[in-house]
Amino acid sequence: xxxxxTLNGTWNWCDTETKEWHKGSVPGTxxxxxxxxxxxxxxxWRTNEYETRELSRRDYRYEREFEVPDSFFRETEQCLxxxxxxxxxxxxxxxxxxxAVGDMHxxxxxxxxxKLKTVNRLAVTFHSPIAFIEKADREGDIFYAxxxxxxxxxxxxxxxxxxGWDWGPQLPDAxxxxxxxxxxxxxxxxxxxxxxxxxxxxxxxxSLESSVRMPGRSETSEAYTLACEITAPDGTxxxxxxxxxxGSTACTSETIEALIEDPQLWWPNGYGEQPLYTxxxxxxxxxxxxxxxxxxxxxxxxxxxxxxxxxxxQFAFVVNGQKIFAMGANYIPEDNLLGHxxxxxxxxxxxxCARANFNCIRIWGGGYYPEDYVYDACDRYGILVWQDLMxxxxxYDLNDEFEADILAETADNVKRIRHHACLxxxxxxxxxxxxxxxWGRLEGHRPKYKADYTKIFEMLLPRLVKQVDxxxxxWLSSPSSGGSFDDPNDFNRxxxxxxxxxxxxxxxxxxxxxxxxxxxxxxxxxFPGKKTLDAFSLPEDQNxxxxxxxxxQKNGLANTKIFSYISGYYKYPKDMESIAYISQILQLKAIxxxxxxxxxxxxxxxxxxxxxxNDCWPVASWASVDYYGRxxxxxxxxxxxxxxxxxxxxxxxxxSTDIGYYIHNxxxxxxxxxxxxxxxxxxxxxxxxxxxxxxxxxxEVKQVLAMxxxxxxxxxxxxxxxxxxxxxxxxxxxxxxxTTLFVKPKYFEFQKPExxxxxxxxxxxxxxxxxxxxxxxxxELSMDEYDVIFEDNFFDITSEEGVDxxxxxxxxxxxxxxxxxxxxxxxxxxxxxx
Length: 834
Prior knowledge:
Largest sheet: 6 strands, antiparallel
Mean pLDDT: 96
């Protein structure tokens, strides 16, 4: 068995210039230790980012002493393992330089046999990443850098976003950000285990391919037993074993097989359950266990269909033989200070994805490969993972050292992640094929770098990934139509990134002109809510054109752009809080326009992954969940427009009185429901109402009603007072609802509502009843000192009966009464914003 001695915990660290020593934590980072130790102010407060950034021009040294017990010296193999070093580091043991490293994405395993003492000093010196990239920029001829990013960052295998992006700060931290330990073995060990699945009529055949490393002389005659136990979710198990005979080399490959009859299949969120099987491999000799490998897996098949059809070529996830419409968002790193990450925080974020009806996320390639617990959570919650390799928006110089690093880092991480049920796709990079073909900013680079792109992303990495994971689909780039710079953003093939809405100021309705096969990036910005604004700024800062607000807006003229969109749809908001609120409504409406349109074209379009899910600091951005985990309007909207069974309304053209009503059934069951369409005025008077009974088959979308409301809106000014509402009712329960206006909201004659709110409670939830004396658009509930997720939010009130909303009592950190909950509640709507 592995003899492991952890070296995590308290280390000493210093700036190598001042040599003033401090206590720090490993795993952790320099900036985390500084912030937690009170040595610097919060890097995210006001404009502290810029002063904090300069600290990364220095070198830092981490040291600790540790003792090694006598038993460890008896181990045949003795290694020092760093699971993550960020990034340019010299590793010293007892003042001897063991290794100089420069790749954040690798695991470093260093032979220390014969170098250890009873008492040892381990030190790691981190060199300035800013000094490195500035030197690379001065001495090299690569001039491209992504928006907001420091030049030269592509020369260093460090998470690119740490050098800035158009949503993130320039805070290139350093440190031992993952575990460090001594690892000792005597005897044979399992160097690698790969699980393959073969699904057939009789069940699922699991094949465990194990690489067994033999000790000492490879010609030893000792035989070993490789045993495998597969435990089902209900605790029942299958046990198989076989004898391993040493070969003529130091490492031998053995495969053991087991058939799982009546398998419980793993499904993405919304399509079935997520049963997980435990696979445990043991290597034994003479009855003693020498090594153990244990993982949880899900039994499923996942691939991507790119078959030709009447529109071009499909791009659709196929899970267990069923094509599904991918619904989710792009995941970026959860913090710039990696020492502030936690399993609980990531668990909450992935749970919030499932709660908003996601079935997938795309882990974007400009960050780093997340911790194991992120993938574990995706397994449990049924969130498919589109996994980019860690290359994004850069020009890379392929040389021998760079090639060795990227192959090693890719192998490390593919092996670590490949067993996860959630893993759906490997993707070579973010936007670089598209960039080389269509971006003017890349013109002028030497032809070598474009050739290097082809070598890296169409030869080296695909071959490596196939070698270590031949069961997961590989896609060359995003967006791409299949490689070779063949129109990578072609609307009829592959995946697309579409940014004309937002970057080119196109209206939301522009989405309806395009029928992408799979839209893997599109987005719209908003400001975070007041609590988050207060977390990084003073009241006097909260003018969107102030220095502080502009420093927390990394997308150039985006604040002006938000105001431009506001002017197109809404009246001028009366204060910063109202600006943030209206910007979030616009963000919801923009993404909803695209998603509902593409879902109405199921089969032609098979995916929408909006930009972006989360933030790495408090900022104005495209995120639907802000840095503190607070849901913006978009995330509540996603819960509605990503529902598996829902209705949508589609105007013939913007503000038309002609509206088509559709029912979407993204499930395995035939569904029967009633669609109720009602036209009413702002005082809740019904002008027209109709009911339509509809049946939809599995994975079917169809139009069930076409309405022209013009005859009911002929009276002068009625369009400014009338609202069309739809409700989809299944088994006497409203499962989907929405409203349509016939004028832009800024021209609608809203009345100031009088709200009535009451709170009662059941055993597990608070029940909030809200009604008003007039039509209410996008009502937002909030609570003073509590950050809670409501059953629904940013909802309309369309009748005198009002709306009932629940909130789970588990959302509250402490027990409170219904009266206390009611006292903390606030409500506002569009009519209150101007």
